Amino acid sequence: MTSTRDESTIDQRWQLWLRPVPKAVGEARRRVRSALTGWQVPEEAVDTAVLITSELVTNAIRHVGSRHLVHVQVTDDGVELLVEVSDQSRTPPRPVVAPSHAEGGRGLFLVRAAASGFGARHRDPVGKTVWATVPRSPAP
């Protein structure tokens, strides 16, 4: 991730650990929205970050198993938001082509379409972090 910003800008960080249960997705959405609203992030960027959080947390919960926590972190550097979701799985995210009648399977396509940047990295000693960036304000 690269950005052009004044180095005197202090990043704001927020994080949350979640049990991998379905209701955790709604909790993550609500809490991310609350944090970003408190940071006075423009509504469009908040909505995009919440959508991305929802999709990434859903994927993590589906693939991590019930014994491991999922970590969500959002960073605001004044120029863009960085949404990161970490889990214990080493398997990198892979978009799949979902049949038109399927109710799911399009999450990573949504994330890629909504985000200005997207990727994944291994975590030491175990797991991975999937990340996406969102401009704080629309491009001129």
Please, could you describe this protein's structure?
This protein is an alpha+beta fold and 140 residues long. It has one domain: 2-Layer Sandwich (Heat Shock Protein 90), CATH 3.30.565. It contains three helices and five strands. Strands 1-2-3-5-4 form a five-stranded antiparallel beta sheet, covered by helices on one side. Strand 2 and strand 3 form a beta hairpin. Helix 1 packs antiparallel against helix 2. The longest helix has 22 residues. It is globular, with a radius of gyration of 15 Å. The N terminus is likely disordered.
Keywords:
140 residues, alpha+beta, Heat Shock Protein 90, five-stranded antiparallel beta sheet, 3 helices, 5 strands, 33% helix, globular, disordered N terminus
Topology (SSEs and partners):
Layout: E1 12-18, H1 23-38, H2 43-64, E2 70-76, E3 80-87, H3 107-114, E4 117-122, E5 128-135
Antiparallel strand pairs: 1-2, 2-3, 3-5, 4-5
What does this entry show, briefly?
Strands 1-2-3-5-4 form a 5-stranded antiparallel beta sheet, with helices on one face. The chain has 140 residues and is α+β, with helices and mostly antiparallel strands. The chain is globular, with a radius of gyration of 15 Å.
The structural class is alpha+beta
Please tell me the total number of domains. Answer: 1
CATH H-level superfamily title: Histidine kinase-like ATPase, C-terminal domain
Described by the principal axes of the CA atoms, the overall outline is globular
- Name the helix and strand elements from N-terminus to C-terminus, one letter apiece: EHHEEHEE
Residue share in β-strands: 25-35%
